[in-house]
Specification:
Elements lengths: L1 H20 L8 E5 L3 H6 L7 E5 L10 H8 L23 H24 L30 H9 L3 H13 L6 H14 L6 H9 L32 H8 L5 H13 L3 H13 L6 H9 L8 H17 L6 H11 L4 H16 L6 H11 L8 H11 L14 H12 L2 H12 L9 H18 L2 H11 L8 H14 L5 H11 L5 H13 L4 H19 L12 H13 L3 H13 L6 H13 L3 H13 L5 H11 L4 H16 L12
Antiparallel strand pairs: 1-2
Helix pairs in contact: 5-6, 5-7, 7-9, 7-10, 10-11, 10-12, 12-13, 12-14, 14-15, 14-16, 16-17, 16-18, 17-19, 18-19, 18-20, 20-21, 20-22, 22-24, 24-26, 25-26, 26-27, 26-28, 27-28, 28-29, 29-30, 29-31
Amino acid sequence: MAARRLAGSAWLQGVALSRRCCLPGGRGERYRCCSSSTALEKTVENSEVTQEEIVLPRRKTWDKLAVLQTLASTVNRDPTAAHYMFQDDPFLIPRNAASARLFSLSKESGRNAAKYIIKQFPQYFDKTFVEPNVPCLMPEILTPQIEGLSEEALKERIHLRRVKDSVDLFDQLVQAGTPVSLETTNSLLDLLCFYGDGESTPEKEEKEDLEEPGVNASEQKAPKKQSQRGSQPFASRWRENNNAERIFKIMPERNAHSYCTMIRGMVKHGASAKAYDMYIDLLNERHKADVHTFNALITAVPYLKEMFLERWELAKVFLNHMAQQEVQPNLLTFNALLKTLRRCGGVGKSMSLLVIKEMEALDIEPSLATYDHLLFIFYKDVDSYPSGIISEVLDDVEKRSFTPQDPDDANFFATAMQACCDLKDIKLACRLNKAMEKGDNWKFLDVDRLNAYWSKFFSLLCMMEQIDVVLKWYKEMSPSVFYPTPKNILDLLQALDAANHLEVIPSVWEDMKQLGFNRRHDLLEELLSLMSREQHPHEIQLEFAKCAEDIKAAHEQTGREQAPLEWTGRALGAVAVLFSRAGRTQDAWNMIERFQQINRIPTDQVMNEFLNCAKQTNCPDEAIKLVKLAASLDLPSSQRLKSRTEKEFELSEKQKKTLESIKSDSDSSDSDSDSDSDRD
């Protein structure tokens, strides 16, 4: 026991000695410590003392969101809850995709309204009672503080993005004979070319942070034919002789920045032909364009030339000019080139891969927009789908977590999922989904794109996967990830029918009511058709009858903005069959009577099912009423129904006489109603 204590104290002394030797004397310095202990020296006397270098790391700077990100990584998504953006007000949680879009737009509209109020009425927000006062957290000053005619006042208004005030003050300075520096005039041109002579709005300010001037996201889908060269009818917002052109013409001195700003503004606002002419003037003045100007010009190529080959030749001219002027291309240059190749037909397919190889040679990593343009080029024609391209793209996408670098980055996942659906390749779709969930890639999908993405993915699952997998995805996706569309519900019903899992239909019907699809004719017809097609166990038939009762209530429901749904013969017959199989005789008879209200004739299946229900519940009076109805409608099955009633029911003498009278009445009227026997 004493020996153990002695050995333990020796070990502790060694640890304490080693700690004292390793005390830091400064950051990033190296220290040497002796790792041998007293007990080890007694055991091994002649052994060499081992030396170990310890490098103390410098102080690590943590991100401001590091703690929140760590906490977020420990929480999984709740599949039963709505999207996180709708959790602020539980009473306003949307039920379907349309309501979700309206909710998100309403929140954004509220933010813009608040910004507008603060900007238009700053005098009501000039008092702050904050202690301590943190300047970076205070509201931004949006009112000009410099009065009078001076260049400093003009700079302040340009900084505050007051387009009209800046133009008015510039004109006053020119009229007063006060010279304005070239730098300030170029800043004013930047403001005018970005906003296109329109006043700045919160929407434009948010778009400015994501969009490079000269690359207009709305130009992605251009019409096939232009009315004239260099014009875009859908985006013609560049007015003739606007303030930007007027100020540019009266400038006493112009440099490359002046020309480049005008070119990018003209391309952004739909005046591609003017931008090209301005570029020719830039070359004539022996100026050099920057990379952003070339990116804008390459984007405008489809509006300058009509033939596919001519477009590619003009794009090559701009690339050659970049090489001659020693302008280094960037990622947006190649993305603009691929975006142009999307409108070059077969030339785009042959040249796009060369563009990708050139990017690799320059060590430029593609962004999601690069892959989006590539997939669009190769998957534009439905008949020629090379699945190898998308597989190679996913090989690269799976390895990375992307950050926004191009406005078109947000289109990739929707485009790739559409390609997977067209190829009917569920394995590629699952790979794409894993890549989307990696890192922060999911942030590229906004509310509209997210719902479209998951809707296509779920339709592909219903088409290609087993029903157990489909139901698992359906349970986890709705409503936490997306709101099923009517097509998704129809695909799910068809998948349940193919797998013979119709017992799940009642739960699907509850989701349909929650989504607001309980008044859609196509879904109701499909639902009733599946439930009434075959006989099921009694428990399932009772659930089906409850669904039929809800559908009946939906048809009869009226409101201030809702009209009652029109019954069809198919829907009436299905509801009557479902009530009959559940033993609800009176409800089934009420549905059969409705056939006369819509001038339709019940089918033989409806009549036979109701007779079976009357037999099951031992209601001969109901069976006789059915025979009377069949005789009054001159149905060919009336005699067969009468025979079944006589054989399968225990009738009293009065009921037998009633049945015989029905026969005599129908026989006497046969000769008078031969021409009306086929009035279906």
